[in-house]
Amino acid sequence: MRVFRGVSAARLPLAVRVALCCVPAAVVAGLLLMCALFAGPGASGESGREGEGAARRAAGHPAARPHVVPRAKWLAGAVPAPPVRYADRVRAVFVHHTDSPNGYDCADAPRIIRYLYAGQVEGRKWDDIGYNFLVDRCGTVYEGRAGGIERAVVGAHTQGFNQGSVGIAAIGTFTAGVPVPKVMTDAVAALAAWKLGLSDVDPRSTVRLVSSHSLSKYAAGTSGKFSAVSGHNDGYYTHCPGAALTAALPAIRERAARLQSR
Questions:
Q1: In terms of DSSP bridges, do strands 133-135 and 165-170 run parallel, antiparallel, or are they unpaired?
Q2: CA separation (Å) from 89 to 95, 157, 195, 211?
């Protein structure tokens, strides 16, 4: 079977192949070359619509990736690699607080994260820390759950709505009247802008998420409407992320949108 510039004549309809038998070879080559040029993404098995959608998401409103301290910096010793699940993309961010003391030295943040990790893995028998990222009061961002910071890792932070979301935990307790450091909220906004920008989601928009667990505010299988940057208490019966941090969410959304050049 003759092949011209990546297009096999066997892939053409029978009537076309019969017609080509009566055409000079040079003309056949030209016709097949035109097929190759105008076939589009479908010629390689990729849907043109899907390919265009991915390109739009990637090029729509990206934001710079903030510096993220890898989990190896806080996870002391060798531990078994936990199983990892991935969603197709990130559609929402849930903000948390860790409900731990506020007056820590930022150099001590890795030890605090190890303590949180131990409480969830050893105390609750989880396979890894639930949060995808953690942010200390100095604005340093730490990788939490394993699986790769660039990818849509399914965490264990907002029961019923872990699929397609990212959990960002502010290290501290931010109940009513507690000051929330601006460098911390700025870091949360930068992280939200980057992760949502990978899917071209406006941080100020609303999204619909389907609950996977009836212990959430929504019965399993039903959908809820959320802000793209929500608090833990929007999806679950909890006071987290605290009244003070909840009050900061509108400003976090606006800053994240600006970082996406919206």
A1: parallel
A2: 18, 17, 9, 16
Q: Which two tokens stand for residue 261?
A: 């050049």
What the chain holds in terms of domains, given with CATH numbers, is: 12-59 (no CATH), 68-259 (3.40.80.10)
Q: Which residue has 């998420």 as its token pair?
A: 209
Q: Name which of 257, 153, 260 is nearest 205 in CA terms.
A: 257
Task: List, in order, residues 6 or more apart from 206 with CB less than 8 Å away.
Answer: 225, 226, 227, 228
d(CA 245, CA 256): 15
CB contact set of 115 (below 8 Å; sequence gap of 6+): 100
CB-based contacts of 219: which residues, under 8 Å, 6+ apart? Answer: 211
Of 182, 183, 202, the residue nearest 192 (C-alpha)? 202
Gap between the Cα atoms of 159 and 234, Å rounded: 11
pLDDT tens for each residue of 140-196: 999 999 999 999 999 999 999 999 999 999 999 999 999 999 999 999 999 999 999
pLDDT in tens, 186-224: 999 999 999 999 999 999 999 999 999 999 999 999 999
Q: Output DSSP code: residue 212.
A: S
Per the DSSP assignment, residues forming a β-bridge with 209 are 224
Give the CA angle between residues 194, 109, 98 to the nearest 5°: 70
Residue ranges of E strands in 159-213: 165-170, 206-210
Tens of pLDDT, residue by residue over 108-117, are 999 999 999 9
